[in-house]
Amino acid sequence: MITNTELEFKGDLYPSKIVEFKKEVDSVYFYTDNSVILKVTVLRDSLLRFRYTTKGYFSKDFSYAIDKTQSHGYNLLELADDIDCYIIQTSKVICKIQKEDLRVSITDLEGNCILEDELGFHWEESYHFGGNIVKMSKASKDGECFYGLGDKASQMNLKGKRVENFATDQYAYHKDQEPLYKVVPFYIGLQNKNSYGIFFDNTFKTTFDFCHERRNVTSFWAEGGEMNYYFIYGPQMQDVVTTYTHLTGKPELPPLWALGYHQCKWSYYPESKVKEVTGKFRELKIPCDAIYLDIDYMEGFRCFTWNKEYFPDPKKMVAELAEDGFKTVVIIDPGIKIDKDYWVYNEALEKDYFCKRADGPYMKGKVWPGECNFPDYTNPEVREWWAGLFKELISDIGVKGVWNDMNEPAVMEVPGKTFPMDVRHDYDGNPCSHRKAHNIYGTQMARATYEGVKQFAYPKRPFIITRSAYSGAQRYTSSWTGDNVASWEHLWIANIQVQRMSISGMGFTGSDIGGFAEQPTGELYARWIQLGVFHPFCRTHSSGDHGDQEPWSFDEEVIDITRKFVELRYQLLPYLYTMFWEYINDGVPMLKPLVYFDQEDTQTHYRTDEFIFGNQILVCPILEPNAQGRRMYLPTGNWYNYWTDELVNGKKELWVQTDFDQIPIFVKEGAIIPKYPVQQYVGELEFEEITLEVYFKLGKEKSVLYEDAQDGYDYNKGRFSLATFSFTGKEKELIIQQHKEGKFVTNYTKFKINLHGLPFKVKKIMIDKEHISFNDASFNLNTLIVDKDFTEIYITGV
Ligand code: MIG
């Protein structure tokens, strides 16, 4: 008989000495005496993959996170056999593998240590589940900082924290709560001005410890699967993040309306209520592009059905809303009601598409509709079926976007709030238990939803939003930060979460503006809107059980502030869209924490509140009641106060005075910021001209403006317009050159140029080498109208 003590933890096991090695194309294998194999693959000179097995062979390689369409390549891969180690060298890094114990250290070409194993790879055999608990520990030097990891509600710098990755429905979470809805096992280390990244691509529950347990050790481990991580070398954080995003994939461009303002509540019904809300937006002239239907639009919470009492003619309603510029987005949950009169249930049952328990019965759990079964989205056939279910909603009824919720997956009234761990999944032909599939479930649901909406929305672009996600989900969907709370602390959390998501590859994210649970004061709501309009996804949402959260639920002043900031977002749409284009092309995060902006400046390492919106606008929310301004840090460079045009030099802390209808916003000198006229929704107006706000600088600066048809896929065929503006400012001279690419012709014909901070009086203006005559009246307040295709504006002054 086996006694309890025999089942107990036998301790950690370690690789022994290397007895053999082998090089194969882009990979090198190291074999130890005790059957451990380390496979090092060079994907790029600055991107190395480390994969370990303890069995003497590797199991099939499969990942949902890695974007297989992305290409990689390196310049150099050299392998040397030294006395006590093997050395792999690329054109960026040198990686040493100790012969004695398989420990790894990575240096740059000058020999500066970037990352080094402490104990390195080790493992614990799991008798209970089979396989190993796989562990890694790295030495951490004093002063090292840590960033990334998705939606964590903690300080930006994770030094001293331990975080857990297990997708969880965490209603009304609090600061430092672990775990949350999303799983992004990717972090950025910054030490001695060098940045590197680690992506631990393992979907089991993972834990990261950043010098929490031991002061000079960073470790991460998983409760199953392989020790399989990617090392990304910077040295700039920019390079780490863009490489990670390239590895796990980028989205396509969303339709421009998806970057507008969205209004949501649990729930708007019946139809008359929906129309009352949309009508009020138009009446109060607060721009809005999307209205959401939460679970009550369905018949008894059955996905793909409508409550005919509340919504007798959904197609007609959706069309009428569309006429008024509103796109309808509907929620779809994973739980399918067990109901023999429900066609979706019957189809799934007939095709055997629901998840099963280990011994065969279907996984059954209670969610909104009552007892439900749950499709296994990790099965490609199930995903295809699921995608097909969207035909009526999208093609026929005209819904424009789909909102996936509860996909952690969440189950009510059970311990752990999710599936039991024995539930089986197909995992794309790699059958496994829920322990392995849990963290990826939501992503595969969103992926299937995306495929469906995309197919039926064609030739328009799809819009998907999800609550749960794993690395790589950004290829299919946007996301929101789940059930937050109407509190000042949560405003602080929202700011950090969205910045963190941005540098974790998943940039199209926002929070429930105003807070989901509980009731915001007008002041809190206003402060939240002022931040929210600078988040890539911008939606007010609330649980609705505490009163209303439409802008007009608050007083006149708050309504005016909401309008002012939502209008600002609509003006900045071309700038925001250009940010998005840089994200999908180069993996550049749309929001940049200060440490990302200037990692050389150690002052930025612990900053959390200020961030760069795009490349040239700095935003700092007000996070306290009764504020008349705030202290903040302005990073390196010279910045114009957006409200006053005062030029301030950075790399210093300062007090910024703001009224209630302002937050500190600064524009980088030399920037050229494009603005559209205010519209009540994207595409409402055809305009003759757009504005370029030009901020004078002594020196040079580049700005970019990307535009296309704002929907559809023609931009992939070259029908886009990409304008690059080069600004050069001298003591008595200003030159703006424009270089254009792409075949898309914008509707407007003119730029209205507003010059800010001009240090001289204009004497002469030449446009494309032609002299422009002007008097003080036509060149009023430093405004100039030019043809949108100008190539050079040349201004001299006295
Ligand atoms: O158990 O659909 O996070 O945004 O309004 C609550 C109702 C289910 C949770 C989501 C929230 C949504 C709500 N849902």
Automatic annotation (TrEMBL):
Gene Ontology molecular functions: carbohydrate binding; hydrolase activity, hydrolyzing O-glycosyl compounds
Alphabetized PROSITE patterns for the sequence: GLYCOSYL_HYDROL_F31_1
Stretches assigned to the Glycosyl hydrolase family 31 C-terminal domain: 587-673
Domain DUF5110 stretches: 689-757
GO biological process, one term: carbohydrate metabolic process
Keywords for the protein's UniProt record, in alphabetical order: Glycosidase, Hydrolase
Domain Glycoside hydrolase family 31 N-terminal: start-end pairs: 38-209
Transmembrane segments: none
Stored CDD domains: GH31_glucosidase_II_MalA (cd06604), GH31_N (cd14752)
InterPro entries listed in its UniProt record: DUF5110, Gal_mutarotase_sf_dom, GH, Glyco_hydro_31_AS, Glyco_hydro_31_C, Glyco_hydro_31_N_dom, Glyco_hydro_31_TIM, Glyco_hydro_b
Source superkingdom: Bacteria
A Pfam match: Glyco_hydro_31_3rd
The Glycoside hydrolase family 31 TIM barrel domain, residue ranges: 251-579
Similarity-based family: Belongs to the glycosyl hydrolase 31 family.
Stated name of the protein: Glycosyl hydrolase
Species in which this protein is naturally found: Flavobacterium psychrotolerans
Lineage, uppermost ranks: Bacteria, Pseudomonadati, Bacteroidota, Flavobacteriia, Flavobacteriales
